[in-house]
């Protein structure tokens, strides 16, 4: 039925009706652009320092938020000759009308824009938050039940200078200190924001739409050859198929820990790891167990043994008593679960290191297997579990999550391919979905995440597991040499079941 409708609409209607109807296909999508098929792309960029803030803007780059959003305008050839602020690009009958200018993308502290609050004008962290809202207002698309704004490309620098005083500890402000931990940092300025180059999307004569964001963290360095590098190119044939997002991420000696993800975030409220009002793509917030994620992933280069490639990372926030987060950084807890598909990633959870395992595993028939049950517990299914730093009633022994790398305490449940995940359509063997095994996945993310252990205070009502960020990409975690990861992502959809 869905397929037939598409064909009829293709013959009878304009572009927008085709894309909307084909994508619907009888299924309800939680996102604004089901399957990444909408020609009028909405995509944004955000860069985070170690604790998901800005700290200081990179010279001449403005605040590290940018967007590329446009609609296609069908006009007879040669009709549009008057000068226009957003210069249209022509093919036969279509032109792109950009909604975000170069000047919008360059906005940085000290420069006002509509809606900017006085307290944010000279504060790089608050400025970035409000710039995201402003870019969202330029990109917003009306829809039901909610308008939506953009896909988000997120880049994060894992360097941490404990002498900078920039990052709170489990949400609590701390003074600069000399760290005994081995956080990577080459010295003063190691937490910098990157250079950002932007190629606005253009429409080529052959019907290819293409644009990109790219850049480096080494803005002082002349040794470009071995510099850190990131790039996301988006490309689509007009009126057909999915956008294909091609990603590259390279670490360097000075920037050995980098992350690059494509995220579907909440359109308002908090998104994973971010205690501020956000903009995004999730016009309906998916809740466990009632959603699936479909996507095509093709990894060309893995990024070395430390590349924790996430065949989906899901993020949310709730308190240890199960209540939703409210922005109180001392009691809010970011919760993440992520499947790491790099076959070189070992299980840190094992019968002899149960501190790295969640207290129990829950089977599809809801049987709990305790981690001390060495015969039945699937140790190989868990890379690492760590508990929130502010939890009061943890089962010994436990490992606490890094207290500095989020604005508030965090909890991580990191999974590995294993037969216990077969029920949910996730990889069951090391190597599945890895380099040379590009696939389209239909993951029962809702079902799986309903049966993961997350910490809660005894006797409290279980949290509703509502997810505010779903993302795919890699975290190259402290490499001893430059490593390159390269992958494409397309057909991303979040299906409500
Ligand atoms: C860190 O150590 C250096 C040298 O040992 C010392 O000079 C400096 O005051 C210390 N800084 C802090 C914030 O403790
Ligand atoms: C770049 O150079 C300037 C001036 O020498 C220095 O203050 C800054 O810390 C450097 N930044 C980085 C990221 O190396
Ligand atoms: C379309 O043209 C552009 C620009 O010349 C080129 O880079 C691209 O590869 C072409 N795409 C296809 C599908 O031929
Ligand atoms: C880049 O790194 C390679 C080895 O990793 C080294 O041989 C080369 O000299 C470096 N180039 C520069 C310009 O630093
Ligand atoms: C639940 O599944 C496990 C294996 O996953 C099996 O051993 C057990 O018998 C099942 N329990 C019930 C009640 O079906
Ligand atoms: C396993 O842990 C549970 C919960 O802490 C405990 O009740 C049980 O006695 C333990 N079993 C073994 C064999 O240690």
TrEMBL record:
Region (Disordered): 75-95
Ranges of residues in domain DUF7705: 29-496
Keyword Signal: yes
Keywords, sorted A to Z: Signal
Residues spanning the signal sequence: 1-20
Keyword Cell inner membrane: no
InterPro entries hit by this protein: DUF7705
Pfam family, one: DUF7705
Biased segments, Basic residues type: 75-89
Top-level taxon of origin: Eukaryota
PANTHER family reported in the protein's UniProt record: EXPANSIN-LIKE EG45 DOMAIN-CONTAINING PROTEIN (PTHR33916), OS05G0272800 PROTEIN (PTHR33916:SF8)
Designated name of the protein: DUF7705 domain-containing protein
Organism annotation: Forsythia ovata
């Amino acid at each position: 039925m869905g397929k037939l409708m598409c064909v009829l609409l293709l013959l009878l209607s304009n572009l927008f009706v085709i894309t909307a109807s084909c994508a619907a296909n009888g299924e309800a999508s939680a996102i604004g652009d089901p399957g990444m098929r909408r020609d009028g792309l909405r995509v944004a960029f955000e860069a985070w320092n170690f604790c998901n803030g800005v700290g200081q803007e990179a010279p001449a780059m403005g605040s590290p938020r940018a967007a590329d959003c446009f609609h296609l305008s069908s006009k007879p050839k040669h009709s549009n000759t008057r000068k226009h602020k957003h210069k249209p690009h022509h093919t036969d009958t279509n032109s792109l009308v950009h909604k975000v200018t170069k000047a919008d993308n360059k906005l940085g502290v000290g420069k006002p824009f509509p809606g900017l609050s006085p307290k944010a004008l000279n504060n790089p962290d608050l400025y970035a938050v409000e710039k995201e809202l402003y870019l969202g207002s330029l990109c917003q698309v009306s829809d039901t039940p909610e308008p939506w704004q953009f896909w988000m490309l997120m880049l994060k620098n894992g360097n941490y200078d404990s002498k900078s005083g920039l990052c709170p500890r489990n949400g609590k402000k701390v003074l600069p200190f000399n760290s005994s931990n081995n956080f990577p940092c080459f010295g003063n300025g190691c937490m910098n924001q990157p250079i950002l180059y932007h190629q606005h999307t253009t429409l080529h004569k052959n019907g290819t739409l293409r644009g990109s964001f790219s850049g480096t963290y080494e803005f002082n360095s002349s040794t470009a050859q071995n510099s850190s590098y990131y790039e996301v190119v988006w490309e689509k044939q007009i009126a057909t198929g999915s956008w294909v997002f091609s990603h590259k991420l390279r670490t360097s000696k000075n920037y050995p820990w980098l992350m690059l993800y494509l995220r579907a975030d909440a359109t308002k409220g908090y998104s994973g790891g971010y205690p501020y009002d956000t903009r995004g793509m999730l016009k309906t917030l998916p809740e466990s167990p009632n959603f699936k994620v479909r996507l095509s992933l093709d990894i060309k280069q893995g990024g070395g043994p430390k590349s924790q490639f996430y065949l989906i990372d899901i993020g949310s926030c709730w308190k240890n008593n199960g209540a939703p987060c409210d922005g109180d950084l001392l009691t809010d807890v970011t919760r993440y679960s992520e499947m790491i598909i790099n076959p070189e990633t070992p299980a840190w959870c094992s019968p002899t290191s149960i501190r790295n395992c969640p207290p129990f595993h829950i089977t599809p028939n809801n049987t709990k297997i305790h981690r001390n049950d060495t015969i039945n517990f699937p140790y190989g299914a868990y890379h690492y579990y760590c508990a929130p730093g502010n939890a009061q009633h943890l089962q010994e022994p436990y490992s606490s999550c890094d207290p500095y790398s989020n604005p508030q305490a965090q909890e991580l449940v990191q999974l590995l391919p294993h037969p216990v995940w077969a029920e949910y359509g996730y990889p069951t063997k090391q190597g599945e979905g890895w380099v040379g095994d590009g696939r389209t996945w239909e993951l029962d993310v809702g079902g799986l995440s309903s049966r993961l252990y997350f910490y809660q205070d005894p006797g409290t009502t279980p949290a509703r597991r509502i997810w505010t960020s779903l993302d795919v990409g890699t975290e190259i975690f402290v490499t001893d040499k430059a490593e390159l990861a390269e992958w494409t992502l397309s057909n991303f959809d979040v299906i409500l079941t």
